[in-house]
Write a structure and sequence with these properties.
By secondary structure, the protein is an alpha+beta fold. Among the domains are: about 45 residues; about 200 residues, no CATH class. The strands form three sheets. The protein has a seven-stranded mixed beta sheet with strand order 5-6-7-10-9-8-11, with helices on both faces. The longest helix is centred in the C-terminal third of the chain and has 14 residues. This is F-box domain protein. It comes from Aspergillus avenaceus.
Length: about 500
């Protein structure tokens, strides 16, 4: 046996350690296998026939393509094989899954026609049924099918044309709004009028005559057009409200965009900014009113700052229930928190200046105003969907361009839900905000619950933030004295 043979046993100290540190046999097998499978690079350089071809894709990418081809007909979530032919046959023969909520719109109505059943009832019985309906509902019933029209006759249409049924006629015509893109429903007249400024309607101040159609009752004070007072000298006519909601429901040619109603203006020392947003088929409005205020105002000065001398309504935006509750008291309380500059005359003024010099500080008369627990929370009107937030902020006074002066200003923000805009009577939110009969019995806390109009509006308008304030009732005692009460003034 030669000396290089692995079976040779050597003696001595070095041979003992060489045998002890020798790798295991399994490792030797792995090394031999790796060396056998490793290509000989020198031999490859000598002969080009033994070089393997390079793969067209990387191994990982080739594995991904192979996996996609094998699982292209499998559901990604369930892992089941999808047979497109079986799916098409199931839809055509068996119909859609009845548990699918979206499949209800495509189900075929296999019920028998109801005209024979309607015709089996006598006209006297249908006339008795119509006694429980208003004139508008009677016309809607007769307008549904020819069988009902023949049973009811022309009596519902004749009754709808009477002057005393003008509101019911307007409610019925509101359901036909989609058929008249070039017209606008006039509620004082109860008929459609042709739009004279189609696509060019612009909201103007209250003292500007801006008719959108030719109406014979345009200047009839006995039948005024429905409107909502935004601020002093600014109103939102229901016609513009109609145009915005029609464009949202039916298309741009039916009206205008809500952004076209946004305005900025100044009047009587107040600056106002309105903005609108459509949420789930309802128009939301935000009005921000700002006015500079001096500290330590007397009660008479506070009234002159808050109320208009023309109609004794607030300069800022309010609903029809602003006299009931604590809204005006909250505004007066916020004005009382404006910090007053301290006196600098006499010994007391010298003492203050000496303390400021000793501590190395300068007295800032425009310190931040902190509100109390009464005027800090937001207020919600319990009788209509309106929310108010009263704040005192430091605002730059740009009346004098030569000086950069910051002054305290009272900021009153109002959020309102104006409703779906179908009609002044059918839209319960619009009727509640204006204090009309259609909004009687409206409970905002029961309808909205924990959902706030301000949070819904500000979440959609990303450029503004809403301070986290709790919402409490504007009228916690529930007293409804209106103008007869003197607490509001």
């Amino acid at each position: 046996m030669s000396a290089e043979s692995p079976g040779e046993r050597r003696g001595g100290f070095r041979a003992f350690f060489a045998g002890a540190l020798r790798p295991k046999k399994s490792r030797q097998v792995l090394r031999k296998g790796y060396s056998a499978s490793t290509p000989n690079l020198r031999a490859g350089l000598q002969s080009n026939d033994d070089v393997p071809e390079m793969p067209s894709l990387a191994p990982l990418q080739a594995h991904r393509l192979k996996y996609q081809e094998a699982n292209q007909n499998k559901d990604a979530q369930l892992g089941e094989s999808r047979d497109h032919t079986a799916i098409l046959h199931a839809i055509g023969v068996g119909g859609l899954d009845p548990s699918d909520p979206n499949a209800q719109h495509y189900e075929v109505d296999n019920r028998p026609p109801g005209e024979p059943l309607i015709a089996s009832l006598t006209p006297d019985l249908w006339a008795h049924v119509c006694e429980y309906l208003n004139p508008g509902e009677r016309v809607s019933l007769a307008f549904s099918t020819k069988t009902l029209l023949s049973r009811l006759g022309p009596a519902p249409w004749i009754a709808l044309r009477l002057p005393e049924n003008n509101d019911s006629r307007a409610d019925f015509l509101a359901s036909q709004d989609r058929l008249y893109p070039h017209h606008l429903l006039c509620f004082p007249c109860g008929r459609f009028h042709r739009r004279t400024q189609e696509g060019r309607e612009k909201l103007q101040p209250a003292d500007v005559i801006n008719p959108l159609f030719n109406c014979p009752n345009m200047r009839n004070a006995a039948r005024p057009a429905p409107r909502h007072r935004i601020t002093h000298g600014r109103v939102l006519h229901f016609t513009f409200y109609q145009l915005v909601m029609r464009a949202s429901r039916f298309g741009p040619r039916y009206g205008i965009a809500p952004e076209s109603l946004s305005r900025r203006w100044r009047r009587d020392g107040w600056s106002h900014h309105t903005r609108y947003h459509i949420h789930q088929g309802r128009l939301l409005m935000r009005v921000v009113s700002t006015c500079f205020a001096n500290p330590s105002l007397t009660p008479s000065q506070q009234r002159l700052l808050l109320y208009s001398r023309d109609d004794y309504w607030p300069y800022f935006s309010v609903c029809a229930h602003w006299r009931d509750g604590e809204l005006m008291n909250v505004c007066k309380c916020a004005l009382s928190h404006i910090p007053a500059p301290r006196t600098t005359a006499g010994l007391q003024g010298l003492e203050h200046r000496a303390k400021d010099m000793y501590h190395g500080r300068a007295h800032n008369p425009n310190a931040l105003a902190s509100l109390c627990g009464k005027c800090r929370p937001m207020r919600r009107c319990p009788e209509c969907p309106s929310e108010y937030l009263v704040e005192v902020k430091l605002t730059e006074d740009r009346s004098n361009a030569n000086t950069m002066l910051f002054r305290h200003a009272i900021v009153v923000t109002r959020w309102s839900d104006l409703g779906d805009g179908r009609s002044p009577r059918l839209s319960r939110e619009w009727a509640a905000i204006n204090g009309s009969e259609g909004g009687e019995g409206y409970d905002s806390f029961a309808v909205m619950g924990k959902r706030s109009i301000s949070g819904t509006f500000e979440s959609a308008i990303t450029d503004d933030t809403l301070p986290g304030q709790r919402i409490i009732s504007m009228n916690p005692k529930g007293k409804k004295l209106g103008e007869a009460g003197n607490n509001w003034y």
